TrEMBL record:
Protein's UniProt name: Glucose-1-phosphate adenylyltransferase
A GO molecular-function annotation: glucose-1-phosphate adenylyltransferase activity
Keyword terms of this UniProt record: Glycogen biosynthesis, Nucleotidyltransferase, Transferase
Nucleotidyl transferase domain residues: 14-206
Keyword Nucleotidyltransferase assigned: yes
Domain Glucose-1-phosphate adenylyltransferase/Bifunctional protein GlmU-like C-terminal hexapeptide intervals: 284-352
UniProt lineage: Bacteria, Bacillati, Bacillota, Clostridia, Eubacteriales
The enzyme's E.C. designation: 2.7.7.27
Protein family according to the UniProt entry: Belongs to the bacterial/plant glucose-1-phosphate adenylyltransferase family.
Pfam family, one: Hexapep_GlmU
Transmembrane segments: none
Amino acid sequence: MKDVMGIINLHDNGTNIKELTNHRPIAAIPFLGRYRIIDFVLSNMVNSGIFNVGVFIQEKPRPLTEHLSSGEPWDLNRKKDGLFLFYPYYNSSNSLYMTEIKSLKDNIEYIENSTQKYVIIAPSYMICNMDYNEAINYHKQSKGDITVVYKKVNNAREDFLGCDTLDVDKEGRIIGLSINKGDCDEKNISMEMYIMKKDFLIKLINKALELSALYSLKDTVTYFHREIKINTFQYDGYLECINSISAYFAKSLELLNIEKAKALFKEDKPIYTITKNNAPTKYGKDAKVKNSYIANGAIIEGTVENSIVFRGVKVEKGALVKNSILMPQCRIGEGVYMENAIADKNSVISRVKNVVGIYGEPIVLEKNSIV
């Protein structure tokens, strides 16, 4: 897709996942032992042949920029096009711009100077493994102004809470937008993925700023939906939205199910990330591991069940970790019992011997916690 540029929009609402976003954006949250949330949308773009990708960062950029670096793992360290990072800055009123429309306007030269004719805009927290080519080709053939990608789900009452939903007519056009409040099972969940011509995006940005400096892209599309032709493209593959602690916890552990994992991870569409040269995991003579993902560089001397263990974690002798997520460099001390919990990076649990949460509401130990 040489005629398509990608924009990853990180203007997300982290209110319900703030324990993990106090030091990082949602896009930089560690996921499933070795990835970051942003790896999925980045991999989708390069697997779809999109090699001009702009990442619009809202705040706390350091963890994300360290992870992305030059973009080499995604083949985006290129002389022509490649990976472009756009950092937040303070405006004249000494406050961060509030919407993605404002940040796009402040970096409009990037869009104007691109050689591509089309743009696909996507968030980071919609986890899927999608070839964008089919949706992009549909948009080109439909001759609409915007194509919005969505998935029809039957689990909206429990999942996708707070996500945008679409009312779609028989011709596939949007006739209304709302928020999923969990009032019924079946919903058309917007993946917040927009496809349009580059020139139309530039016009949309300028129109939005004429209306309000606080208008988001979604607000703008909603405002103009009767004046412009907005089509939809229905996606039917794996999709989860990581927009809360409960969603992050539940959807991570669900991927321990091999059938769930196969729906997300595909041989012909690999998910790329940074490779680190850690030593293999070391298992002590009394170690017991059941239905868990253990990354390299870990040391397991105790028991781990139905859990995700990242690089460099140490579970000491006599410790039992169950239904939990241990991020990089955590240490679980001797005799500790841990269940339904998330330990962020560099956390140490040794003095408190019982750390037990509820499966749907896990205990979260923030980064660098000592318990």
